[in-house]
Amino acid sequence: MRKLTYLLVLLLPLQLFAQQFDPVKALVKRRAPWLSDHVIFKPLKSNSPGVFKLQTINNKLVISASGSNAAAVGVNWYLKYYCHRSMSHMGDNLTPVLPLPVVNKKTTIEAAAVYRYALNYCTYNYTMSFYTWADWEREIDWMALNGVNTMLAVDGMEAVWQNTLRKVGYNEKEINDFIVGPAYTAWWLMGNIEGWGGPMPQSQIDNRKLIQQKMMKRMHELGIEPVLQGFYGMVPSSLKSKSKAHIIDQLTWGAFKRPDILDPTDPEFSRIAGIYYTEMQALYGKNIRFFAGDPFHEGGKTDGVDLKKAGAAIQASMQKYYPGSTWVLQGWQDNPKQAMLDGLDKSKILVQELFGEFTNNWKKRKAYDGSPFIWCSVNNFGERPGLYGKLQRFADEVDSARNSDYSKYLKGVGIMPEGINNNPPDYDLMLELGWRKAHVDTKNWINDYAEYRYGKQNEHTSNAWQGFLQTVYHSRPGYQEGAGESIFCARPALKVKSISSWGTLTRDYDTVQFEKAVKEFAKALPVLGSSATYKIDLINMVRQVLANKGTLVFNDLVTAYNNKDLQAFNEKSTKFLSMIKLTDELLNTDKYFRLNTYLKQAINSGNTPGEKTNNLKNILMQITYWGENNRAEDNLHEYAYKEWAGLIDNYYLPRWEIYFNYLRGNLQGQNNPEPDFFTWEHKWVDDNLKFAPEKPARSLQEVVNEILAM
After folding, report:
1. Quick check: 414 and 143 in contact, CB under 8 A?
2. Could you name the domain of life of the organism this protein comes from (predicted)?
3. pTM of the predicted model, to two decimals?
4. pLDDT tens-digit readout, 12-40
5. How many domains does the chain have?
């Protein structure tokens, strides 16, 4: 009996080790089932942030790993660099590979970063407003494969706030007036807006709660720490009429009334924080190690607040209910404010160098006054379309920080896109930098990327990607918030400096060189035409060529109008409109680029006709005028514009047609009022709360040939 007990004690650690890899085995079965019977996982002891080893033994791929997260990265490394297969937000290349490639010489990869972080608050709305559990399951699988071990997870915060406010004395209407609609959660949690787009139906609050619980369970299984929303003092603006506590009116964020801030040094703060964290524990447990939340994000009033004491009080409440937890702060604009940092225990914070492609605050602010930080890239704003990413800068800046005087404070890397359905090389490279200790030359890296993205070496795609690296994915200095924008999606005017208020029409690369690279890329269509990733990229590249040409034609029609040349104006405006129609036809060749694909998500997330309609209104507002009805604060229109078939021909095209008819009338001596697009856009949303009419798709080859022959 003693021998049996002793044997069971010896076998128990082995059983536990085996179980820790079960979630990774399930991941492989979901994404690459052809590999699942040919891989063996073994535990590997290590004190590093993560390590895995690959080797073929007895016709089996053996992945020895320090944990489930490292094991998932090991799977992805094998898929990418041996099988030439990959998963992305813009198509998958995961068809079976037989026979399986052999790893003759043991490959060992050790993580260079303690934290590999993912997701911006905004990603939760520009991409994920209507994600189902199936969508999140796929998302978490991608995160694990790419080595993410810390991820923002705020899908179920409505339920926490709902329960908290009930205990504070709020009725259901008052709570509904505070919680925003399903496409605006990010800006609510960041303290910018309240109520807009709501009310959020109870069914969606409950569904998000259940999804959040599933997410956290799966994330823990795959070695990904969830980052939830901490309590930093944000309260409904109505609370000041109910409480005598020191509540600072935060005024407005653009056209929106902001939630207020309950002074963290007021005794009422600790009481409400206690309720909030108790409700958090009831819904999502006590095993939470990271919390986000930024007081005074993008402005707000700090008058009368002792920021040093306020920061200490926020952190103290967090530590009381979640001892040892880390407060994750965005390094964005002047946040985190120095006065607030002065009051914090820096061993329990993590600062994100959020906009690393253009800032170097980690250096200017001396590692945020000696705080642990991670280097991150935003890459895009509003998930606006466009090919873009300063790839070599990613590699250079991370390497620079690692070899700087502040290297001991650099704890990792992160991807912080406002939307993630774009530019897959940006995310692949950034997260690989968390696993590469040597400096990366992207000229070499991009060749491997092209091979694993499309499944095989191809002279045309390899040459094209070198061209893309020198143009749209270059690393020239200069401030720019995302890709150069498409004139087709501008609110019509004769002088268009940018499509979104903070964007740009400038192309800071050689568009002729880029078009040459796209034509080279298109030569692979006969060989790679069955590849989903190739087709999606080809559509996106050709779309960019057409957008670039559109600016030139627009400039010509403006010149014709200013010269009062009606014939030339008619010719150029007709050509411009035909290019918009051609853009719609190109995008319509793949469901990834169709408006209905995303409207369907919104419709399916509602249980009743009213819920479905509100979901549609949320998404259509967001991608057009964004929100609110104040002409004087109309700065967010087109911030999240999309180039999607069904939106191009039904929204942007008629808007330009209206404007050109107005200009034509001016040239003909008519005295018509200028179109009121502010009103037109709001009415368009209200009139289009339904699927856009489907159109038959033309041949991709045919449309591509037509565009590239222009």
Report:
1. no
2. Bacteria
3. 0.96
4. 454 555 678 999 999 999 999 999 999 99
5. 3
